[in-house]
Batch of 2 targets.
Target 1
Amino acid sequence: MSADTTSTAIGPVEGGAHYDVDNPAPYIEAPRKRTGKTPRATRGNFEMAAWLFMRLSGVVLVVLVLGHLLIQLFLDGGVSKIGFAFVAGRWASPFWQVWDLLMLWLAMLHGANGLRTVINDYAERANTRLWLKGLLYTATVFTILLGTLVIFTFDPNIR
Amino acid sequence: MATPVLDKVEAESAASPYITVTMRIRRFNPEVSDASVWEDFQIEIDPKERVLDALHKIKWDVDGTLTFRRSCAHGICGSDAMRINGKNRLACKTLIKDINPEKPITVEAIKGLTVLKDLVVDMEPFFQAYRDVMPFLVTKGNEPTRERLQSAEDRERFDDTTKCILCAACTSSCPVFWNDGQYFGPAAIVNAHRFIFDSRDEAGEQRLEILNDKDGVWRCRTTFNCTDACPRGIEVTKAIQEVKRALITRRF
Ligand code: HEM
Ligand code: SF4
Ligand code: FES
């Protein structure tokens, strides 16, 4: 049936051997196996809320972010018009204050939750996850608080 | 005088349907090495045959150590899902002629599950997720003396997800499953969907709660890899979306 058969190895795939009898490969626990470390309940509505929030905030962000970009970068002289006077003029109106505040909170929470997903996906070790998420949450809280503070306490007569 | 007609007949009968194909198989044998190796096999095969036939030719005539799973050989037992030319398929449903035999055909184990040998993976995490969604009919009250009746429309509601053969082509094509293997995976959700939307079943709420897990349906990122991979043509991503929708509409 099958005639001329040559079997030629075309080389190692993953960079050669790393382990041998004296240096055995680390034991990897099978995923989803019930061990002593398995948390009892991992259910709850948090992931559902996060999932919903991503879609709802995304819809609102389309309007807020695109409107923001349009006003800041294209209309009325484009980016060159932006200066202290321009910002002071806009934040004199509660409408733009609310717009910017909403955009700040939604974009930050949306972006932070998105990055949380990315960290969950890509950070393999529990410790790496912990540190990356700690950094992420710190940066998020800091930026949201600072931004909110500035929007509410902005003083156009500052010298 | 030469008879062109006869010549033609002779030529035709002499033409063999066999062509030479290079099967490039990712070999792994933990008793020999901890690294896997691509190995090429040249075989003669009719392009109308399947990748499974090519593997059989190698195993039976060339190298008996080649290890893979297969049982029915007709696309119904779900044993032989493998990554063929970079795509998850059943070896018994993939014709050689459909995957460009001019180039070497790569065959490797499905991803995201521990390789035991060559093309055989440890399916235990996959079946653990399957068991976790309670893939059996749950009812309350007395057992009826006749079969449990259901209207044609009620049966139609979950028809698509009854077709699953648990081959793991979908779950092992999912990038979220590749990450840490904790995600329930499309196949488990498909089989939960099979009962959640069955009018005779009474544990739908319980199954939805199970899939409301931190590694449940909300980890799905709608990449559609599962739908592309399913050899049964199940609309896997759609089934997952329906479970998400059921979770949201039942609660709000
Ligand atoms: C302009 C309107 C926007 C819409 C409609 C939108 C929509 C979405 C949706 C639906 C997701 C979830 C994807 C999934 O679960 O698979 C997502 C993820 C994400 N979004 Fe947005 N978003 C918008 C703006 C933004 C902004 C302004 C930021 C940055 C601050 C951002 C950062 C992210 C990140 C980091 C992710 C996670 C990426 C991933 O899961 O792969 N998005 N977005
Ligand atoms: S849904 Fe399709 S790809 Fe997934 S296990 Fe079932 S038959 Fe295989
Ligand atoms: S051998 Fe049964 S599905 Fe392919």
Target 2
Amino acid sequence: MRLELKGLTKKFGSFTADDDIDLVVEPGQIHAVLGENGAGKSTLMNMLYGILTPTSGEILIDGEPVAFGGPGDAIAAGIGMVHQHFKLVGPFSVADNVQLGREHATAGVLSAKAARKAVLDVSEEYGLKLDPDAICEDLPVGVQQRVEIVKALSGPKTQLLILDEPTAVLTPAEITELLQIMRNLAAAGTSILFISHKLKEVQAVADTITVIRRGKVVAELEPTASEAEMASAMVGRAVTLQVDKSPAEPGEARLEVQDLTVVSDAGVKVVDGLGLTVRSGEIVGLAGVEGNGQTELARSILGLIKPDSGTIAIDGKDVHGTSPAARIHDGLGYIPEDRGRDGVISEFSVAENLVLNQYRNAPFSKRGAVNASAVRKQAADSIAEFDIRTQSPDEPVSSLSGGNAQKVIIAREFSRPRRFLVAAQPTRGVDVGATEFIHSRLVAERDTGTGVLLISSELDEIYALADRIAVIYNGRIVGEVAPDTPREVIGRLMVGADIAPVQEPAPVEDDAGESSTDEPSAAADDAAANDEEANGGDR
Amino acid sequence: MSTDTQAPAADQPDADETPEQKPSFMRLFGRYLTEANSVMVTIYSLLLAFFIGGILLIVSDEYVRSTYTYFFARPQDALSASWYLVRDSYIALFEGAILNLSTLERYSAGTAEFGDLLRPLSETLTYATPLIFTGLAVGLAFRAGLFNIGAQGQMIFGMLGALIVGFALDLPPVLHLPLAVIAGALAGAAFGAVPGVLKATTGAHEVISSIMLNNIAALFLVWAIGTEFLHSETKSDLITKPVDESAVMPKLLSSLGESLRVNWALIIGVAAAVFTWWLLSRSTFGFRIRAVGFNEHASATAGMRIGSTYTTTMAVAGGLAGLAGAALSLGVGSSGVTTNTALEYGFDGITVALLGRANPGGIVAAALLFGALKAGALSAQPDVPVDISTLLQAIIVLFIAAPALVKAILHLRTPRGGLVTLEAKGW
Ligand SMILES: Nc1ncnc2c1ncn2[C@@H]1O[C@H](COP(=O)(O)OP(=O)(O)OP(=O)(O)O)[C@@H](O)[C@H]1O
Ligand SMILES: [Mg+2]
């Protein structure tokens, strides 16, 4: 399919999100679209997919102008889209979500079997592993993203695939896989529009690159362009992609986790005897494939989950039995990984979201009432300091671009005193300029003596920031290594393949009975645990 | 979906041709009128309800129906009979609810008092008063994402609480009345907190537990009225002792006529609406209620306690419903409370809250409308079927709850930000 956009413009009220965009996607081409947060990329894609109606301009498919009344029309025309924000029905199974809108039915009766088979076919064809019967809302975000991709690919005759930041929540291995899938699809004639803030990916797959800034096309680049060229085209100034940081000066322990165990509702030990220390003035990077207990660890530190055993001490105090509010008040900063669910209230205004965890403290609260002028002032300051692109502080967060919503959370956590910070995927979906900014803020934070636990599935981010790297696998720390440890070593730790081939029988521990639950990897896991103890000795 | 997105397309290009020029006021206004925003949907729902109500009046009237048997021979018979029936019915409702035209004539002739003129309005306000409280009770909970279907039970306990303090204590009026009102609020709050606590601790859905608690309250009332402590000493039927003179809710307009029943509870109701507005939009507690109502995950992550928000919100809502009960038991004056005193005000509060879109101002307006329908229908019977008030209420709420229906019937445009529907989360 050859797609051509002519002068496409979208206005929201008086604000122009996309301004006279021209763009051509040739058949079988992978066309990357780059741009800052709020540049108008998602808006452009939503017009292509029939979700938004262009204010003016034309969309031509194979030379014919088209007007989509809704996504149904776009799908019928052979366009598939993976949205930046998941559009899955939480309580439905994977199979049901994938067949949504094109149900497999005979005489009005849904065929569960056909739906499952369709999922299995697609996921096998493209190597995207999925359990068709899993309930979507129970799945980790990375897996949910996979559901979205399978859904977009299982359209009747998808000839143009729109991928709006599909890799933001995927693991490195999944990304490599996805890029390969994209190449295969393109080779078979499918055109792909690809949005990503990760320039390396763009370099790796794109045939051509369009850069938009503040709604306008500002550059067309070749994939041979360097990361720095791309970054400066996006942001309009030179961006340093390297984080400047001096060696850490670790002080006293700000987070001490000992023997932490969390058992999920399903009875699985998602965090399994985990031990971890983060000191003041250091950033500890927690590397690991998503779904290995990071979420539960973070939520236990905040106090949203009551651990089944073990202790957590923040700033030297055992926090057992204290509420999240008390921990936040005592200086715990928390950037949650799932921003739409846990980070912001999308119906609330930007200003309200900026004080979401401080609305009860002075100066935002005055004798039981919210002090509107203090809230407004805080909002104005944060919007300026963190360059949050919004039409006004009273705009609901739902109208912000993904990266700007993330900046709201970052601004909230950075604008109050804190002793220890949990940052889970802090730059997920954030553009290079803002990533640079957030990274330097995290380092500055460390230098003021805050302890930082950086949870990231992106090794690049871990390498850029961490003073020490802990690798989590199956709910345990399987290794603590220096930041100059080679990628392969960490990569193998992350998937549970042990570096040191420890052959001796695993020592009998209290988890002997439980080894049946984590089946084949149990032995490697135990060995890794030994290794961790060895490493941990010098703490 | 497709119609939703097509609609704005039609009018956007022209907005684009003249980007500098500001559209005239009349154009903006006309555009507002043809848009399915919440104000216009409400107005159109009312108009549609009266239209459909008219059809049902025609269908249910035997004489008018008979004129339709020879419709093709003499259509003017059927049409004029229909027109007069509908017109007269709605005039009768209007006269019972707002202003009686024949009283107006008598008043201008000097044979009626000014107070007589106000009687329909007083009736409207009297019926509206409990609805303000119960509407607020449901609306407040809505904002926390809770569906408080239990206002009826909370109101019954409020009624009993106020009644007991009203007759059992011996106090001067300055103390007695306020104390009785507070007792009503507290009793309602305690009963309202129960589904909140159950939800917070066990996850039991508030709708289910509230329905059960409503039944418990209704049956408890029947039993309680029969007990020696509450039962009237002078009458044998199922009626309680009256409250002391010092605890009776004073009438507002008694100086203008003894038949003007509207009392001070109305003022308390308006004050409660103002309080609820402040609570929701200005207070830190309201911030928490709205946050939890929109997204409990993000609220919990920000350190808000979800369970205690549910409990407190339900308690405050129960307190508001309890005030409705206090207004009733302290308002009936010397006659005492029966099983009929509570009517269905608690359930009607749900429709009031829906119509008022869970906004305190809207709730007061909706309560006034429903009070007027009730007063009108009661005074217009038997000429007009008394069910017309319930019927109109039901149709109004049906349309309000399904704005897409109104939009489709009248071909309205989708407003920026989409259609507004009120929903309770957590199903
Ligand atoms: N429905 C809306 N109403 C008003 N403004 C909107 C709406 N949707 C998007 N915008 C604004 O349009 C601009 C472009 O948003 P868009 O989501 O397209 O950005 P983006 O390039 O995808 O950014 P990101 O990389 O952060 O996802 C933003 O400034 C956003 O605030
Ligand atoms: Mg986007």
